[in-house]
């Protein structure tokens, strides 16, 4: 597990920019954290990192899925950002019925799932997990990152240098 300390929205954006620069063209990101931990804020920062207006990126708690088109800064290639929220999903079957398995396999697409721990068994084995935790000062966030993908682990580790 690799940990990052994020003390401000500016640092969150820097984290997202660095993350967007190293992510492969197809990845699922599972966001975990309590209400208000910053899951949607991180998704908005990732969106900004690929040129999507963050005002268009809201928590899809009721719509369950929003998709946006962006551009990777690293290679100027188009990248789609799928943003899902599993908070209101009652079980794995309901989540699968959304057609999420197709999203996980889509080329040139990142799929970000808020409340991903609620549908853990439905996500790909190589999911990049990001757990956001508010510290005692309620301003600083800790982001713990882990994945079963060794190559992605090495890339994430390089962000901490």
Write up what this structure looks like.
The protein has a seven-stranded mixed sheet. The protein has a single domain, classed as P-loop containing nucleotide triphosphate hydrolases (Rossmann fold). 29% of the residues lie in helices and 29% in strands. The mean pLDDT is 86. The radius of gyration is 14 Å and the shape is globular. It is α/β, with parallel strands linked by helices. The longest helix has 14 residues.
Features:
161 residues, alpha/beta, Rossmann fold, seven-stranded mixed sheet, 5 helices, 7 strands
Care to count the β-strands? 7
Task: Indicate the overall shape.
Answer: globular
| CATH homology group | P-loop containing nucleotide triphosphate hydrolases
* CATH-defined topology: Rossmann fold
* Beta-strand content: 25-35%
Structural class: alpha/beta
Instruction: Give the N-to-C terminal Cα separation.
Output: 15 Å
Report the top-level CATH class. Answer: Alpha Beta
Pfam families: TsaE
GO molecular function: ATP binding; metal ion binding
Organism: Rubripirellula reticaptiva
InterPro entries: P-loop_NTPase (IPR027417), T6A_TsaE (IPR003442)
């Amino acid at each position: 597990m690799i940990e990052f300390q994020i003390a401000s929205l500016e640092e969150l954006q820097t984290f997202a920019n660095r993350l967007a620069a190293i992510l492969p063209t197809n990845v699922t990101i599972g966001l975990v954290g309590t209400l208000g931990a910053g899951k949607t804020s991180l998704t908005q920062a990732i969106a900004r990192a690929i040129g999507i207006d963050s005002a268009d990126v809201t928590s899809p708690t009721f719509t369950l899925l929003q998709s946006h088109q962006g551009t990777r800064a690293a290679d100027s290639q188009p990248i789609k950002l799928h943003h899902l929220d599993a908070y209101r999903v009652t079980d794995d079957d309901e989540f699968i019925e959304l057609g999420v398995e197709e999203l996980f396999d889509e080329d040139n697409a990142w799929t970000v799932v808020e409340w991903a721990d609620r549908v853990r068994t439905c996500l790909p084995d190589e999911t990049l997990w990001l757990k956001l935790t508010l510290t005692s000062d309620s301003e600083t966030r800790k982001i713990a990152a882990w994945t079963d993908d060794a190559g992605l682990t090495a890339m994430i580790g390089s962000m901490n240098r």
